[in-house]
Amino acid sequence: MHERLLADFEQRKPAALARAVSIVENHRHGFEALLGALHSRLGHSRRIGITGPPGAGKSTLTSRLVALYRSRGLTVAVVAVDPTSPFTGGALLGDRIRMEEVALDPGVFIRSMATRGSLGGLASSTREVADVIDAFGFDRIVIETVGVGQSELDISRTADSSVVVLVPESGDSIQTLKAGLMEIADIFVINKADRPGSDRLRNEIELMLGLRMGATFKNIPAHHGVDLKRLANPAKLARDAALGSEAEHWTPAVLATSAVKNEGIEPVAEAIDRHFAYLEQTGALRERRWRRLRQRVIEVVEHRVRKRLWGDSTTNAWLDEQLASLDSGTLTPFVAADELLRRSGDLLTRMDS
Amino acid sequence: MHERLLADFEQRKPAALARAVSIVENHRHGFEALLGALHSRLGHSRRIGITGPPGAGKSTLTSRLVALYRSRGLTVAVVAVDPTSPFTGGALLGDRIRMEEVALDPGVFIRSMATRGSLGGLASSTREVADVIDAFGFDRIVIETVGVGQSELDISRTADSSVVVLVPESGDSIQTLKAGLMEIADIFVINKADRPGSDRLRNEIELMLGLRMGATFKNIPAHHGVDLKRLANPAKLARDAALGSEAEHWTPAVLATSAVKNEGIEPVAEAIDRHFAYLEQTGALRERRWRRLRQRVIEVVEHRVRKRLWGDSTTNAWLDEQLASLDSGTLTPFVAADELLRRSGDLLTRMDS
């Protein structure tokens, strides 16, 4: 076990944080024990998701927010899962230098997530890395993702507050923007708002919000409590995220910024604070965090099942032996699956050390 | 059970095919029994994947290929999972009318897959629908997907031969094209090849192919047999798809077409035939199909596990009871996951009726 690391971590040594994050991100030996040891320290950080199409200026907005939070004495971590972000090394030199200045500040922690390989597990790893940072005691965690697919939306859903950044040019294509991107937004930021088309974009967002609020009032029962049993169903979970009990009370803010010129950043920070206060007062914060914890258990269970089944040589050898029968048609995948599960019972139910 | 349906299906009644596809696509009651009953009939159809960015002309190319195959007396099914495709109702009226002409032909079957909801299960549903069509005895199945994300690549990987369609305009952005799109291609089609930039695109593709071949020679062991045990690992599976034993022998064709003008379609059909002949001769066809069967069993197992665990009210109630302890930090998600699996052993290993 990582006892020395944990001791250094408790003394808030930056190197211990970096190492713990690496162990967890790469699922190195002992990462579960490490996360388990840190688990009781969770809950201090406010998690802010920043999502939007490529080129919307998410990274610039993030760096402005970081500077603003620092000026207020708050510590900030940035977790970037955006391949076009300077945090992940994908952008112009100027941006990168600007970030490196911030990076010299011990009150700032920056980590980019490797997006190589499948996106499937990225939402789960991002959540785990954010947990480590939370346990370390950072005041704010900004999770920056480029909003193009389901996985990125999943990542953004792990935040307490989600900011969706658009630019006037997005107006033309707002219809084709993934509906999910619109649904997760607690706050809309129209960046580069001095460009033509800014007003039109605002109108389109507000029109869409009007439709969404209308749908919410129609479909949501009167009581506010999330029925946790319903959350087991992923489709319902997604719908809850869109039409959750919070949504009928919180009207997403629509704010204009010019992140490059450092204009309009303060109102964004204020809207995030207001949203967090709203979450706290209505009990929605606890609901979101409980939902996250529930989702964490589900992820761990499914990961365990996959690892135990497909990492087991006996199971694989048995499956290989069935391929000829599957091919000739005498065995169906359904019968094979049932038999595989029957044979693998001990694997699935054993305790991990 | 669907006995009457199966009898009609065996008599090749078109209505039975349409109904069987709907039952399977929507996972209606008895769909597994139906797929199980059809399983021994699999293996006649050649499955052709057509993938590419929006606007590349995939649907026009597909309709030209359909017409060509029909002129040769072959039956053809189209499974469209592309929201921009006229097959799925997303395109111009002119295109749709052209497709409706084809649709009157009983030797053609067209089905669009609903893309509403998560893409997660779409690769698996597409494969199941293709299985039904295969069992019905169609000569060719064209699976058309818009190539933007991991799920679409997964869909395309279920085909025997994958055609990637690009347009000269793609040249500017070929670097940003998902690497996976380049890796799955058995055949590249440069559509709208009379437009400027066509030669440049061809050069870029061939340069990329050169790099890919180089990598293949370096990384692939000399023997040709796929080690089926390695396929259990999804990451390795993906790498095998990219650097599979076939890849070192098959040099992807790069062909120019103007699908709108019906030019260059025959060479595409020929390249597909050549690729299929190559797959048959080298044994790679059997490997691909066994890999597909293996993947089917894995999907069914994981689907069963998810349904049994998260569809069970006792498991959900137990999980809900742990949320307070998880929140206070006295219980970690890992301990909860282990305990949940221990308690759910019977659920996981029981046989489905």
What does this structure look like?
2 copies of one chain form a homodimer. Chain A has 3 domains: 1-41; 42-282, 3-Layer(aba) Sandwich (Rossmann fold); 311-349. Helix content of chain A is 54%, strand content 11%. Chain A has helices spanning 3-10, 14-25, 31-38, 58-71, 93-103, 122-136, 150-157, 179-184, 198-219, 234-243, 265-282, 284-310, 313-328, 333-343, 345-349; strands spanning 46-52, 76-81, 108-112, 140-146, 161-166, 187-190, 253-256. The N and C termini of chain A lie close together (12 Å). The model of chain A is unreliable at 90-94 and 215-247 (pLDDT under 50). Chains A and B meet through α3, α10, α12, α13 and α14 of A and α3, α10, α12, α13 and α14 of B.
Distance between the termini of chain A: 12 Å
Classify the fold: give the CATH topology of the largest domain in chain A.
Rossmann fold
CATH evolutionary superfamily of the largest domain in chain A: P-loop containing nucleotide triphosphate hydrolases
Tell me the structural class of chain A.
alpha/beta
By CATH, the architecture of the largest domain in chain A is named: 3-Layer(aba) Sandwich
Name the overall outline of chain A: globular
SSE order of chain A, one letter for each helix or strand? HHHEHEHEHEHEHEHHEHHHHH
Strand arrangement across the biggest beta sheet of chain A = 3-2-4-1-5-6-7
Strand content of chain A: 5-15%
